[in-house]
Amino acid sequence: MQFKTTAGAAFALSLIAFGAWPARAGYSAAGAVALGIQIAERRHREEACEAGRAPDPDQAADVDKRSQARLEQYFERVITDDHGSVTHLFIDQGKRARWTGPNGPQPVTAIDDPYAKARGSAALVRKAFVVGGDNESARGIWSITVPDPKDPTKTQTLEYGVDFVLGGFGGMWILHMHVYAAPDSAPLPEKFCHIVAGKSY
């Protein structure tokens, strides 16, 4: 591990030396070393995951707790129609995020989720949850049954498939959210090392 960390720092410093590092953007040698160490550590975790090592139990528990809290915040905020507060739950304030409802995708900056608004006291039931081998991502499915917004005398069961990633301020941020209305259902997440676009919600 020490060798890989040192190698990562050395690689970043070499970029500065040969002019490949964007020093004009304000990156210092110390900053390059720190980033190099971070890159090396992530590479080490990736190699360990590919070799079959499970996520760190303590970090996985923390990712689990933060992800669940973030999803609850989504339901709390979406009913207010304050699109700004909802957008702030997504990575980079929605710039890299994606939201897809039963009728197709919507801009993260203007999510209209009538099912979440109809939640009331209905419980969110977790169906599946997997923490990525990088200890910085997670994927899960939550089920909820709410009054049908089109006919309150009936109910509608939804599944929320969500990808989370670790972002700024140490929070777990929503990267992708896909809402499936029964009889459609979210595909069960498999073990993974990091979020891959083609295998995400």
How would you portray this structure in words?
This protein is α+β, with helices and mostly antiparallel strands and 201 residues long. The chain has two domains: 2-50; 57-199, Nuclear Transport Factor 2, Chain: A (Roll). It contains five helices and six strands; from the N terminus they run ααααββαββββ. Strands 2-1-6-5-4-3 form a six-stranded mixed beta sheet. α1 packs across α2. The longest helix is centred in the N-terminal third of the chain and has 22 residues, at 29-50. The two termini are 33 Å apart. Residues 1-21 have low confidence and may be disordered.
Structural class: alpha+beta
Average pLDDT value? Answer: 83
Number of strands: 6
Portion in strands: 25-35%
Order of helices and strands: HHHHEEHEEEE
Low-confidence stretches: 1-21
CATH architecture classification of the largest domain: Roll
| Count of distinct structural domains | 2
The biggest sheet, with number of strands, parallel, antiparallel or mixed sense and barrel status, is: 6 strands, mixed
Rg to the nearest angstrom?
20 Å
Q: CATH topology of the largest domain, what is it called?
A: Nuclear Transport Factor 2, Chain: A
**Strand arrangement across the biggest beta sheet:** 2-1-6-5-4-3
Overall shape: it is globular
Number of helices: 5
Please identify the top-level CATH class of the largest domain.
Answer: Alpha Beta
Share of helix among residues? Answer: 25-40%
Ends apart, CA distance between termini: 33 Å
